[in-house]
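USER:
Before I trust my own judgement here, I would like a peer's view. Write it directly below this note and I will take it from there.

ASSISTANT:
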Amino acid sequence: MVNSEKHRPIRSYVLRTGRMTPGQQRAFEQNWSRWGLEHASGPLDFDAVFGRPGPRVLEIGFGMGQSLVAMARAAPDTNFVGIEVHKPGVGRLLHAMAEENVSNIRVYCHDAVEVLRDCIAESSLDTVQIFFPDPWHKKRHHKRRLIQPQFVEALRSRLKPGGTLHLATDWENYAEQMMEVLSAAEGYTNTCAPGEYAPRPAHRPLTKFEARGERLGHGVWDLVFVRSTQS
């Protein structure tokens, strides 16, 4: 008998059972048809979905969406796609979009690995951003971390030549792993000197959590790499 556990893919997340608030549920029901995307729909036609061309930014794991909404509001000509597996966060994002009149975001509530594989065409993205992914801080759980060689290669194939991969974490050990993985990955170039972290770009909003961490002396590490034009 085949052991299905051995062949089940390792997930970088655990689905939490927290309930949506009434406001999140209402926002989801009212706005999903406008701004939601379905993994089952297959390859994404950006220009058709947004009704216009424009730079394409994919954010993986946007949490409750505050940062993504702020970035979209500041760059109205850019087309943002967010992926988040936790439905309360999707509901909160849709609520904020409606409340703040931000309409240049589309969202998947699905596994990012599957969305990337099935819905995002090769060489179609200008930027991929992953901010504060789950650090899985216990050593035995490091295999669950999202930033692994195979996933980084999948991201590279979806970026346009010259496109940007921007990562950020507040766990030094994860930052070191991210730097090791990206520095060894084929077809990427660090925008800083080899092995160096980037200063926080002005377009990445400072979250309340991050600002509190800075006051307490906690570090945050940004990594900004580009897909080599020859790769």
About this structure: The first strand starts at residue 36 and ends at 37. Confidence is low (pLDDT under 50) at residues 1-7. The chain has nine helices and eight strands. The two ends are 42 Å apart (CA to CA).
